[in-house]
Amino acid sequence: MLVSGTLVWAVVPTCPGRQEGPPHPPVKTHISVHTDAAQAAAELDQDISAYILAEDGGSETVFTDLAVRLFAYQYAHNAPYRAFCDQRGVTPRDVRRWQDIPAVSAASFGDARLACFPPERTVLRFISSGTTRAGGRPSVHELETTRLYDLSLSRQFARWVLPDRDAMPMFCLAPPFEDAPHSSLSYMLSRLHQRHGAGGGFFVHGDRLDAGRLCRSLAVAAEPVIVFGTAFAFVHFIDFCRARGIRFDLPPGSRVLETGGFKGRSRTVERDELYADLSALFGVPAPLCLSEYGMCELGSQWYDASLRDALLGAPPRDGLKMGPHWARIAAVDPISGADVPPGEPGLLQVVDLVNRGSVAAVLTADLVRLQDKGFVYLGRSPAAPPKGCSLTMETLRAAGG
Question: Dihedrals φ, ψ of 176, to 5°?
Answer without folding.
Answer: -70, 165
